[in-house]
Amino acid sequence: MTVQSHTKSPGLNGAASSSPAGDIQPGTNQEPTSFDEPEYTLWDRLRIRITGYWASFLLTGTMIPIASSAIVVAMYFSKGDLIQYFSPFMYFDLHSSWHLLLLAHVLTILLWLVAALICYPFATAESANPGSYGLLKARLCQLRAKLGIAGSDHDLRMLEKKCEDIEEAICEICKIHDESPQKMDNYGNPAARITALTSYIDLRKMLYLHPTGLLWAFGWGYCNAWRLLHQAEEAIIAFDIKEEIIYEAMGDKMALQGSAIGARDELLETLIQAVMVLQPAAGIYLKDHQSNKESIILTALKEEAFEEFLSRHGIPIQKDNNPIPDKHTARSALRRVKRAINSLRDRGWEGLVRARNRLLASIAITGIVTHVLLCMTILNYGPLANTVPNPDLVAATAFYLVGAVTGLFGRFYRESMAKSTVDDFGFSTTRFIATPLLSGLAGVGGVLLTVTLIKLGGSGLSSLNEPGLEQIFKLVPQFLLLAAIFGLTPNLLITGLQNTAKKYESDIQSSKIIEPGTANSKA
Predict the structure, then answer these.
(1) Each residue of 14-33: pLDDT tens digit?
(2) What is the domain count for the chain?
(3) DSSP reduced 3-state for 101
(4) Lesser CB count within 10 Å: N end or C end of the chain?
(5) Of 123, 157, 175, which marks where a domain is finished?
(6) Are residues 378 and 423 in the same domain?
(7) What are residue 18's DSSP bridge partners?
């Protein structure tokens, strides 16, 4: 890898940034780059828009079967009135079920295209999860400052030609490779610096090259971004100043208390010992948690007192000529502790995203099956009548709506009782979307199952002695009550998904920094 010679030129906000020396002509004034400069080329903008729209198209597709079923039912119950509005544009047989379904699906496709355009922001990194994106940008700025990259956050510049921070990070890697081993040891762990810089570059490239797409629409982009950021922050421990390391270690100690990590006590002991190696005086700030912490502090104080006694009496002190590896080992131990905490958070976020995407897939499949059954039912009844719609479909629709409404109220109650401060990447919203779909189907199926079992059981109800669906799908208060009761049953399934989400949220919450004394009182 060859590196061109660079000179520092004014960057954004007056920050120094590197640029090729050959680009500066003598006698010309270099103006600071303005934020109005285009960020992407025309082709890049087109690619990003198409990628984002395609992701939004697929994301909204999970709800389209439900919307299509609603359009079909509305057009069927309108007795041809809605179809007449489209008769000036094309011919439609008002009595044909096929024409009704064809028009309903054309309207569904148009609605899908418009909905994908409206929901386009939900396929972008900035708007799909603005809270997580804001934290990522803030932590990325801190990472850039610790890595000593002078270039500002050039979100309005092109990747390699206009993003000097990435260009400078690449140059830093090249300089580390070119430096002598002695200089690298004094400067810090070269492998760790390369790891931090490459993670920074990968994260910046992902945010720049792929600001829209399926990664962000379905949440995996945030998981990958946080994993890269955590990897860089862990590597910085190998060469950061001791004050910053102690600060982070104290936060990690508070995060470990009450966490769901199995080796929590062992990690706490490792953290305290590593801090004592780096800075023995910091031991007084580590509140008593480990039983042997006092012995560690006492041993360090005894060693300092003994060395001071020998120096006062002129006795030569035999020290290790290379004490640096001990501190390097302590830094590695702190990296291991940080890795354990970050792994718990990463696994929790990945579990929430995976559960949400599986539920979205279930919604799409269930909606498609329901829509196909509805279309087959309408075609089975033959030509449309000009009078009252088929009473069986009216009753089935009423059962579906009653079950959906009661299930939705039950979901509202359960969600209102839930207490969580963890970002679940839209999992709770997805549960709300799934509830009316499943509850409506449960209401219709519950009525069908109950009445069928009563008939098979030889019940004495005279009204149920005659066979046929017309005796099942009819609007009577008893059947509406059955639909309402069965509409609450899908909440049992969704509650199981909610409990799974609570486990992931609890793991993430337990790894956050908590105040002393609250570890055992968390809900």
Answers:
(1) 333 333 333 334 334 434 33
(2) 3
(3) helix
(4) C
(5) 123
(6) yes
(7) 8
